[in-house]
């Protein structure tokens, strides 16, 4: 048999972590890696954080799972905290980002259905977006590599150019339900939308009774120095998908919505066996205990400035490799002049973990608990690697 027991859908690297401690991962032979990838923006508290570990251990010993047919004191508590801390009035818990986005799509469509407009089902989405790997979420992007071989895709999505307000406006028809957008594209290459664009989408949504749906699966949960990235833009969405960091590594996501937007999400319209289970709720509580504190958000902003400043200082020394730094807080990307994937592989082989993204960008997504010493270590090691790196010659 040629196929591997793990379905071979990932190009898995030789890094095989078996243990983590703080901002470091350790492989089977004890090799150490400085983890500035964080499981792709997931391990906000690093590895083995005592508060998160204790919360999960205690809840696991108390109650792991019950059905959503029963009352959920744990879910009510976490939902209330998210409602208090955000634009939202109500929360549906999921186990992943794609499921959270699915719920946002259903909520947006259901809003118009409730108001007697079931034909208003189309979401306007944006080029190079990434919303997940389910059928609906691959249908919501124009990235061919995600869609290849999976036809027929779902109807109900119109893709226009990211950060182009005129195109978004021109795409509105009597079938439009709303906009679905990442305020800062992650997989697409750490591309922050402009303030004019985000404010413009909000205005268009208000003018046309559309749902403004934000996918903050990657940029949310304190990564940018605000609990959610929309706060940087001075706007509020109607519906928002969050996941990744919200469980600190425990599978957890959520769809947040205003009361107005969730008007159609009544009993029987949606569900999930595992969504909101007590163990996930305990993980979510523990993460919020740490990251929602104003001092912690200030820490993220400060570390983001340090890291960005140090990277910007380094770039002129290696300007054959690096072009510029972009991003917000600790969601940073280095736009490269050579193939970012090859360089990420080289760094990995030298004990530094980063993540490649679209547009030839190397993502730098450290745990949010990093200290200045980690910033210094990362930039020194990156600089050293850049000095030694021999750019592969094109075949
Ligand atoms: N949305 C965004 C912006 C993402 O970055 C991702 C994952 O990378 C997803 C959705 C999908 O999340 P998940 O892989 O947890 O389904």
Short description:
This protein has 395 residues and is an alpha/beta fold. 36% of the residues lie in helices and 18% in strands.
Structure description:
By secondary structure, the chain is α/β, with parallel strands linked by helices. The protein folds into 2 domains: 17-48 and 294-388, Alpha-Beta Complex (Aspartate Aminotransferase, domain 1); 51-291, Aspartate Aminotransferase, domain 2, CATH 3.40.640.10. Helices cover 36% and strands 18% of the residues. It contains 13 helices and 17 strands. It has helices spanning 38-41, 50-62, 73-85, 97-114, 135-139, 144-147, 165-170, 195-208, 230-233, 278-291, 294-314, 340-349, 372-388, and strands at residues 17-21, 24-27, 32-35, 90-94, 122-126, 157-160, 176-181, 184-185, 191-192, 211-215, 239-242, 253-257, 322-328, 331-336, 352-353, 355-357, 361-364. Strands 4-12-11-10-7-5-6 form a 7-stranded mixed β-sheet, with helices on both faces. A hairpin with a 2-residue loop joins strand 13 and strand 14 (331-336). Helix 2 runs antiparallel to helix 10 (278-291). Pyridoxal-5'-phosphate binds next to helix 4.
